[in-house]
Every structure is written in C-alpha cells, then in structure tokens.
Amino acid sequence: TRAASVGSAMARHAGPRLPLIVKNLIPTLSSVFDSQRITTTAFFAELLNSNVVNDLILLETMMDNMTGRQKDTCMLVRMLALRGLGNIACGSPEKVRKHGAKLLASMVNGMDDKDDPHNLVALEAMSSLSKLLDHVEERDIQSMLLHIAIRIRPFFDSEQPDLRQSSIVLFGNLTKFSEGNCEVFFEQILNGLVTLLLHLQDPKPEVVKACKFALRMCGPNMGCEGLCDMFLNHLREDRSLHYGEFMNNVCKHLMQTYPEMLNRLILTNLFYFKSNWVDIRAAAPMFIGFLVLHVDEDHCQQVDLDQLISGE
Question: Which ranges carry the Maestro/Maestro-like HEAT-repeats domain (predicted)?
C-alpha cells in the first residue's frame, strides 16, 4: 500500500525524474527477495494508473515488465502485476486497443493461475478485465469469450462475496461482445440464468447489485422482449424489488418463450436446495413452483416428479 501511495504521488509530482527511477528499479523485479519484487511491482502498478508513463514513453517498457511477472513464484507479485496491467485502462486507455490481445491473454492466464488457493490472482484478473473491456477491439475478445465465460461461472457461487461480485459483473460486461457468437454465448446465459436470478436474494448487497447489472445486460440477448423489459425496469439499481412477484412474471415469460427449458431450469434449481444461504435455499423451490405453474400441459411431462419430490 505504501509503495502504491508513493507511485501515485510520484506520478503527479516527479514526472521528469521517472524514467531514471524506473530504469533503476527494473532490476529489483528480478530480486531474490519477495519483498523487493512486491514493492517494485506495487509501485509500477500505481504508475500505470497515470497517463504520465505514456507521456514519458515508459508504457511499453513497464507493461512488458508487468507481463514478465506473471510467472513469479510470489502470488502477491502476480496479483499486483495484473493490477498494473488493468490500470492501463485508466492511465492510458488509448493504448489498450493497440495491446489488447496481449493484455487479454494476461488476464486469462491470471484466471487460470494454478497456485492461487484463495483465488486472489483470479479476482484481480476478473476486476482488471472488466476495466479493459471498454477499450479492447472486439476481434481480440471474441476468440476468448467462451473460455472466459466458462472459467468464471464457478465463482458465481463462491463463499467469498468479492469473487461472486467480480465474476458476475465481468459476465455482464462480456455480454456486450456476444453478438458475433450469439448462439454460443446464449448457451452461457442460459447456464447462468438461474444462478443470477437466485442471487438477487444474496445476503451481500454488492452481489445483488452485480446480479441486477448482469441480468440487465443479458436481457437484450435472450430473444424475449417481455423478459428484457422486466430486467431493465425492475432491476434498476435504485429500485427495490418485490422478489416473489418479479419471479412469478419472469417464469411466465420463460415458459412462454422457452418451455422446452423447463427440466433444465428445474435441475439447476434443485442444486440450490442445499445452498448455504437460507434466502437462496428458500428462493429455489419458489422458482420451481412458478415454472411449473406457468408451463403448458404439453411440456409438463419433462418434469421428473420423483426427483422433484426428493429434492435431489
């Protein structure tokens, strides 16, 4: 934190001296001491938050050094390196387009970090990727879209609220790029839909806010105008939600538009009968009840009553 504060202050006040300072600090990124690598990476990450590195033609050098830290043995260094790369979206947004493919690859690698027991690197990768998405070329993200969507899906139910929030916000941001891959990404929306609707009952307000955002973003891709309008009107950040009434209407639209999805939606809800969160545990059977209420008779035979009664 101290190194980041120093980086922020120096970006504001020490412009002309920065090239020499950066040049002298680069060797410490290869130091045998974790503390020196951590401090320098944190300092560089904060510098990248400012356009001064672009003005002084330091951006490419620092970006290459941050990318080079992705294989560091210290998890904190890897996390801070991703933060620095994500900060380019704030400090030099016009450069993100040029280096988009490289930056996106770094974020995907961060999400796939194998030595990240508490998912801190993945968390940094997801929040940094959300920042970068506004500035990358569509062609650069298209090739990675499906991989990222599948990779972040398990985090929707993480015990860590910041992982739930970041992954859900990122998913919402990814939908902006789904047009070229509409059918493929539509499948990902359907895979996540039950989870996003149930987590509107999440105990953490920041996760509820993330779900509202993601569902509003998903709405236009769902091929159902009624559902899209419901998400846009009822899931505004400043609006309180009558959950039962909302879900009743959502299920009506779902069963009118996708009746063949009934069994799939029920099976996903059954998983949440054992949720650790009581409000989500309560929401899942209500969700199923509304689905069955609104489906027509022709599709009722999809339902496996034995499975439903046993709740497993």
Answer: 64-310
